[in-house]
């Protein structure tokens, strides 16, 4: 059975090239040719989309791309969609697309991006496109949500973020899949599918990043500019300075949802040394026994804190050292992709973001 893949080409860095001294932008068909033959048993339908560079996309542009992906799966009958995208805002577009498709994602959606131009000797676009097409053709990735091609890895759109000037990562979450010797290997569990969006994301939402000494000026300016909702990205684990609480209360009275936060993950890791081998536990007279009773274990290495053994012999360091790992998760349906996401706070149906962006408008 032939797998029908829709490739939506938006240009940007991976399509930028030079012919002599003349800069050109490769079409989707030309870009596909650089990736070599498509995976066996696939039929690739290439269509070019006219959008601006990814660093200049607004929420309306991202919403248009997300709707085009959705139409390719639900209306045009394709089995998978590959969307080429610039790296600057690929995580935001991927997350918005994932929200818009939920929970009725019938096929595979992969976003491919590159950091080097097509004419450069070490261009990474061909490899990224091959990985994306291979993943799109793999039926095992159906219903896994939107994925982003990141140097052979395929992290989930909900977790992927820019880890540097040229890198994408989903740490501490493992990628959902990975290209291994020309084949897709599933290495992680995809996040739960978000609920379907309700209504149209056509409202203005202001995102304000908090900092020490911030006052209500930015909140007031956002309201005066017509913001229908305000997301505050708090400091630390989501703390909002006291100076903003009065403005938040006033926004609530005026019917403008305002709030924010950045809570830690649901499960805090226990950091310490791994459990000692069974033989060592017996030698030190601390063989674990069933039940809630605990027994003092051997001292830590180099005079460190002593261990205590719990049920099943699992060792933890006392006192426990706790910390947040991996940053916030993403819950709920966002109003504007990751323009208002990233934390767990829900404001007007959206969540907070790690980026300070101005008030943006999504046109329905």
UniProtKB/TrEMBL annotation:
> Where are stretches of biased composition, namely Polar residues?
350-364
User: Region entry Disordered: which residue ranges?
Assistant: 256-314, 341-364
Q: Where is the active site?
A: 13 (o-isoaspartyl threonine intermediate)
Asparaginase/glutaminase C-terminal domain mapped to chain residues:
204-257
Task: Give this protein's Gene Ontology molecular function annotations.
Answer: asparaginase activity
Q: InterPro entries, from UniProt?
A: Asp/glu_Ase-like_sf, Asparaginase/glutaminase-like, Asparaginase_C, L-asparaginase_C, L-asparaginase_N, L-asparaginase_N_sf
Q: Where is the composition biased (Basic residues)?
A: 264-287
Pfam families per UniProt: Asparaginase, Asparaginase_C
Which SMART domains does its entry note?
A: Asparaginase
| Residue ranges constituting the L-asparaginase N-terminal domain according to the UniProt record | 4-188
PANTHER family from the entry? 60 KDA LYSOPHOSPHOLIPASE, L-ASPARAGINASE
What is the name listed in the Swiss-Prot or TrEMBL entry for this protein? L-asparaginase
What is the originating organism of this protein?
Micromonospora yangpuensis
């Amino acid at each position: 059975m032939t797998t029908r893949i829709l490739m939506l080409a938006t240009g940007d860095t991976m399509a930028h090239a030079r012919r002599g001294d003349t800069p050109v932008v490769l079409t989707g068909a030309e870009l596909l040719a650089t990736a070599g033959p498509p995976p066996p048993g696939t039929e690739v339908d290439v269509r070019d989309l006219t959008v601006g560079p990814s660093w200049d996309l607004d929420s309306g542009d991202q919403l248009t791309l997300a709707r085009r992906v959705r139409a390719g799966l639900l209306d045009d009958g394709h089995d998978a969609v590959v969307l080429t995208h610039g790296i600057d805002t690929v995580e935001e577009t991927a997350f918005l697309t994932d929200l818009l498709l939920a929970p009725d994602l019938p096929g595979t959606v992969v976003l491919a991006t590159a950091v080097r131009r097509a004419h450069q000797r070490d261009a990474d676009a061909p490899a990224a496109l091959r990985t994306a097409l291979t993943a799109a053709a793999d039926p095992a990735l159906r219903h896994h949500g939107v994925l982003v091609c990141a140097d052979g890895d395929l992290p989930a759109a909900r977790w992927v973020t820019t880890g540097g000037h040229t890198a994408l990562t989903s740490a501490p979450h493992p990628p959902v899949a990975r290209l291994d010797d020309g084949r897709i290997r599933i290495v992680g569990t995809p996040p739960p599918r978000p609920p379907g969006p309700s209504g149209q994301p056509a409202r203005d939402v202001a995102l304000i990043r908090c900092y020490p000494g911030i006052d209500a000026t930015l909140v007031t300016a956002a309201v005066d500019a017509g913001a229908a909702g305000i997301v505050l990205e708090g400091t630390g684990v989501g703390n909002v300075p006291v100076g903003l609480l009065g403005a938040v209360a006033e926004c609530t009275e005026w019917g403008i949802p305002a709030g924010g936060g950045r809570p830690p993950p649901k499960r805090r890791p226990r950091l310490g040394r791994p459990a000692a081998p069974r033989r060592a536990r017996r030698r030190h007279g601390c063989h674990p026994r069933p039940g809630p009773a605990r027994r003092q274990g051997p001292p830590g290495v180099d005079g460190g804190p002593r261990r205590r053994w719990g049920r099943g012999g699992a060792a933890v360091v006392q006192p426990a050292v706790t910390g947040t790992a991996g940053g916030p998760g993403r819950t709920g349906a966002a109003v504007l992709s990751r323009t208002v996401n990233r934390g767990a706070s829900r404001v007007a149906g959206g969540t907070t973001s790690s980026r300070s962006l101005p008030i943006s408008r999504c046109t329905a």
